[in-house]
């Protein structure tokens, strides 16, 4: 069963989307502000987000930061300028639909993102000479096993499941160190990245897999 959160302040449209998407396999839930969205995210694990940008308590792009790495995000908005679309995608959205839109097209895009997410979560990924089996906790490069710490495994999973996307340092710290610690020095992330590079890269000083996006964070750069 897939849970989808629709963050849309037009209540009639949100209701229509819920009706269009509801099925034996999909449970849609709507909310109408950034505040209410954060409350729902704290209670339920979602498989996809449909996010309006123009919300009564702020810009949906601000909420997008909190959604990175949780599940795919499709932006829904009346802002149809090319610059708006580029900004949304570069901010981490997986797709973009401008209003008004066809519900059939929406369903197709939703199903496509759910399918891609399911493939990413299948446990085993093969990427450019590497095999990562997150279910069995087995990791290989060029057929040779890699011994990874739990923290390194968490970082690797976040990066490869979001390959091609830049993950911000603060977000990685929040997602990886989830043991309730009130403060984690960002240097811990730098140390973990270095250790992971030492195990993955042929030359860790010239990384191919894990690229630094200076001033922002890191990205997994190969397919």
Question: Could you list some keywords that capture this structure?
Answer:
single chain, 223 residues, alpha/beta, Rossmann fold, Arc Repressor Mutant, subunit A, four-stranded antiparallel sheet, 8 helices, elongated
Description:
There is one protein chain. A hairpin with a 2-residue loop joins strand 10 (138-141) and strand 11. The chain has two domains: 2-120, Rossmann fold (3-Layer(aba) Sandwich); 124-220, Winged helix-like DNA-binding domain superfamily/Winged helix DNA-binding domain (Arc Repressor Mutant, subunit A). 40% of the residues lie in helices and 24% in strands. It is built from eight helices and 14 strands. The chain has a five-stranded parallel sheet, sandwiched between helices. The protein has helices at residues 11-21, 34-43, 60-67, 82-90, 103-120, 150-161, 169-176, 187-200; strands at residues 2-7, 26-31, 48-52, 54-55, 58-59, 73-77, 95-98, 124-127, 130-133, 138-141, 144-145, 167-168, 210-213, 217-220. Helix 6 (150-161) packs across helix 8. By secondary structure, the protein is α/β, with parallel strands linked by helices.
Question: What's the short story on this structure?
Answer:
It contains eight helices and 14 strands.
Shape: elongated
Q: What level of helicity do the residues show?
A: 40-55%
> Number of domains in the coordinates?
2
Computed Rg: 19 Å
Helix/strand order: EHEHEEEHEHEHEEEEHEHHEE
Protein topology:
Blueprint: E1 2-7, H1 11-21, E2 26-31, H2 34-43, E3 48-52, E4 54-55, E5 58-59, H3 60-67, E6 73-77, H4 82-90, E7 95-98, H5 103-120, E8 124-127, E9 130-133, E10 138-141, E11 144-145, H6 150-161, E12 167-168, H7 169-176, H8 187-200, E13 210-213, E14 217-220
Parallel strand pairs: 1-2, 1-3, 3-6, 6-7
Antiparallel strand pairs: 4-5, 8-9, 9-10, 10-11, 12-14, 13-14
